[in-house]
Design brief:
The complex is a heterodimer of chains A (about 250) and B (about 290). Chain A is an all-alpha fold and about 250 residues long. In chain A, about 80% of the residues lie in helices and about 0% in strands. In chain B, helix 3 crosses helix 4, helix 3 packs parallel to helix 5 and helix 8 packs across helix 10. Chain B has 10 helices and 13 strands.
Chain lengths: ~250, ~290
């Protein structure tokens, strides 16, 4: 990657960062409502005094909630903005008219989701650190968080580029994002599910994200192979986005 | 004179419909080229193909000598596009929109600042520089769109129906901008529904119908093709008929054969006559 490439990514991301600056307060509050409700309802409501895989349930679910926050914040901020820019403001074409590499557009447009995901997750995890002594902030946790936010932001781009209407975005969220939120090892261990269902869950990126977040923040053995799989999801979403831009199938 | 826009056999199909059908075009440097046609003729698709927003099915397009497929980035460096619809980021301010476009075109920071200020002054949008675009009226948004398209001083400017829905003041502003660009040796490729706009601005005009060019030339050449003198007359059914003749003498001879001369107008043929006659969208004379 050249300096010119990095500069293009910065130029693409600049407008979205200004947008984030204009809306940071309301956006942060909105993105924290669901994870905090999950924390209260599942962590304290259902899981009070319980343990799972050798740790308190609250320590168990906080990494899962961080993973689902990475998914919801990164996916929704990228997909919503791109969807609006493409179908409503119709200014996505303006960027396509400029002398920018497709790769710079794909990476640059993912930055909003990454930043929003990192901010929201940082707040949730900070709360988690206060609530549980078992949790710790490690470099591997930060690495997992960045890779997760990048992956989910790229997924948001794919959804926004494929969407033919605002309604189809909502349908995608209901059919793909919502089931992932609850099923991919966020609130319970994937190993407690039947084998055939585990196979389905391991086809979804959030399963790897939540497992890795738990391993890296609870001091368990880190599954590098899972990180490779999560990264492979990112590469696949990136490739889809490049293909959609190159072929103008948007 | 060099050709700055060249298309050869440019074709685009959407399902069974051929929107652009083997289009061959050559637009010279520094000319204002008008692209006229009825609704659905393929004007906007042609612009989208030339400006790389749409992928072609076959044919070639060169912008300033660069093939848009092989040298897409270089080809896009010199073009500016004012689209038919407004295409600004409504969540950002006027200033932010301009800076965004300047950054997309990789203008250095000092140049960026200077160009933004120049365009804000030229398009008289200084009062609204810190307003969010969403709060502006359509006319002001159009001005901001124009400023965005001109920020990198493109040598080829595409305008797709630029004056649709604008008041007369905004329309005149756009005409002035086109003339100013032309005086700076910039090439303008313009699609429009307004025939008087093409007549007032264009050096050459192409009529497109069903994805094909059916006539191409200067407005004078096109008028001569149809007949430089037009006779407009009403028949008994109160329907206006038009006939075209090479000269006034022949037109007068025809008028003398008519039963009534109360409702006859003899005038020079204009581009609208050519448009209607050549696109065949109306029955001109029986």
């Amino acid at each position: 990657m050249t300096f010119d490439h990095l500069r293009e990514i910065y130029c693409v991301a600049w407008g979205d960062m200004r947008f984030l600056r204009h809306t940071i307060g309301s956006v942060m509050i909105m993105s924290l409502v669901s994870p905090l409700l999950y924390l209260l309802a599942f962590g304290y409501g259902l899981g009070q005094g319980q343990t799972m895989e050798g740790v308190s349930y609250i320590a168990f679910i906080i990494p899962g909630i961080v993973a689902l926050t990475a998914l919801s914040a990164s996916f929704s901020s990228t997909s919503a903005r791109m969807n609006v820019q493409r179908l409503y403001y119709r200014n996505f074409d303006e960027m396509m008219l400029c002398p920018l590499r497709d790769s710079s557009i794909v990476i640059g447009k993912s930055m909003l989701g990454i930043v929003r995901g990192l901010l929201s997750c940082a707040i949730i995890f900070a709360i988690g650190l206060i609530l549980s002594d078992d949790l710790m902030l490690t470099p591997l946790f930060v690495l997992t968080l960045i890779v997760s936010c990048f992956t989910f932001s790229l997924l948001g781009e794919s959804a926004a580029l494929l969407a033919k209407s605002h309604q189809s975005m909502a349908t995608f969220s209901s059919l793909v994002i919502l089931p992932m939120t609850f099923l991919c090892g966020t609130f319970f261990s994937v190993s407690s599910m039947p084998d055939w269902f585990q196979a389905i869950l391991y086809a979804l990126p959030l399963t790897y994200s939540s497992t890795l977040m738990r391993e890296s923040s609870l001091g368990w053995e880190y599954s590098w192979i899972f990180l490779a799989v999560l990264s492979a999801f990112a590469v696949a979403f990136y490739a889809i986005n490049i293909y959609l831009l190159k072929t103008r199938k948007i | 004179m060099d050709n700055v826009i060249t298309t050869e056999g440019l074709t685009k199909r959407f399902g069974d419909k051929t929107a652009v059908d083997g289009l061959d075009l050559r637009v010279k440097k520094g000319e204002i080229f008008g692209f006229l046609g009825p609704n659905g003729a393929g004007k906007t698709t042609t612009i989208r193909l030339i400006t790389t927003l749409e992928n072609k099915d076959s044919g070639t397009v060169r912008l300033n000598g660069y093939d848009i497929e092989k040298d897409r980035i270089k080809a896009k460096t010199s073009i500016g596009v004012i689209q038919q619809h407004l295409s600004l980021d409504n969540d950002l301010t006027v200033m932010e929109n301009l800076v965004c476009h300047a950054m997309f075109h990789k203008l250095p920071k000092d140049v960026r600042k200077e160009r933004v200020e120049q365009l804000i002054e030229y398009l008289e949008i200084g009062e609204y520089r810190d307003y969010k675009v969403t709060s502006l009226s359509g006319g002001w948004k159009k001005r901001v769109s124009i400023a965005c398209a001109l920020i990198h001083e493109p040598t080829i400017l595409f305008l797709d129906e630029p004056t649709v829905g604008l008041d007369i003041q905004a329309r005149r502003l756009i005409w002035d901008i086109v003339r100013k660009l032309n005086s700076d040796e910039k090439t303008v490729f313009l699609t429009t529904h307004y025939i008087e706009e093409a007549e007032a601005l264009c050096d050459r005009v192409a009529f497109i119908n069903q994805g094909r060019i059916i006539a191409l030339g200067t407005p004078e050449e096109l008028c001569r093709k149809v007949g430089s003198t037009a006779v407009e007359y009403f028949d008994g059914t109160r329907k206006t008929n038009y006939m075209y003749f090479e000269d006034r003498e022949r037109a007068n001879e025809f008028v003398n054969t008519l039963d009534t001369k109360d409702t006859v107008i003899i005038r020079n043929t204009n581009l609208e006559d050519c448009f209607v006659e050549l696109t065949g969208k109306k029955v001109v004379a029986e």
